[in-house]
Design brief:
By secondary structure, this protein is an all-alpha fold. 65% of the residues lie in helices and 2% in strands. The N and C termini lie far apart (63 Å).
């Protein structure tokens, strides 16, 4: 009988923790998915350049040879951490984007979920991995640049789908351009991510979101 392959355990970008799978037999000295979550948490907090291998070793509880054996060098671990962040965020935001709610409610829920992610962190808000750290590394690293561009395009497309559906339902004026509105919504997401990292209070961020939503769907 052929066994079905299982994908990697899903996590939560607010905590960077994965659901630990049940294992049989002798346990490993470390859990790769747990260690990856700890590396992700560290990269989100301090970025790539300011995170040393010693920092990663301390955070994951793995020595350097074990880190190399499990994840490759620091750059490879950073890329794996960013991919983990993208997978977690996609899983968390996917249901909100796919719900067939009125457009105002849907936008409110999307931005509220984003704020939950950006304001998380035991030592303070960490913002968005794409905006706060990967965007900087994208300047010199073509692989990270491609990942960042993919993340930005994916967000634009998700918002555009929301606005197209709202236009078809008569919630937006006939001359509304879903692509333009999508880029405005994405720009708002990026703005609150930066402000969240700067520890702007949630109440102020929610006011920015409310104003942006009014501007995007106002029929007047």
């Amino acid at each position: 009988m052929v066994q079905k392959k299982k994908g990697p355990p899903q996590g939560d970008p607010r905590t960077d923790k994965a659901i630990e799978p049940k294992r049989r037999g002798r346990p490993r000295a470390y859990e790769p998915e747990v260690a990856l979550g700890k590396a992700l948490d560290l990269f989100r907090s301090t970025g790539f350049a300011a995170t040393s291998l010693d920092d990663l070793s301390a955070a994951t509880g793995m020595n350097r040879p074990s880190l190399y054996g499990a994840f490759g060098d620091k750059r490879e671990l950073y890329i794996k951490s960013y991919q983990r962040y993208r997978d977690n965020a996609r899983a968390l935001m996917g249901d909100v984007f796919s719900n067939d709610w009125p457009v105002r409610r849907q936008l409110e829920q999307i931005f509220a979920t984003a704020l939950d992610i950006y304001l998380s962190g035991e030592e303070g808000p960490r913002g968005c991995f794409t905006v706060m750290t990967a965007g900087s590394e994208a300047v010199a690293d073509p692989d990270i640049r491609a990942m960042v561009q993919n993340a930005l395009t994916e967000l634009d497309k998700a918002f555009a789908h929301c606005f197209r559906r709202a236009k078809e339902k008569g919630e937006l004026p006939a001359d509304a351009d879903p692509a333009v509105l999508a880029r405005l919504a994405s720009a708002t997401i990026h703005s609150i991510a930066v402000r969240a990292r700067a520890r702007v209070p949630r109440q102020e961020l929610e006011a920015i979101v409310a104003g942006a939503i009014d501007m995007m769907i106002d029929k007047k």
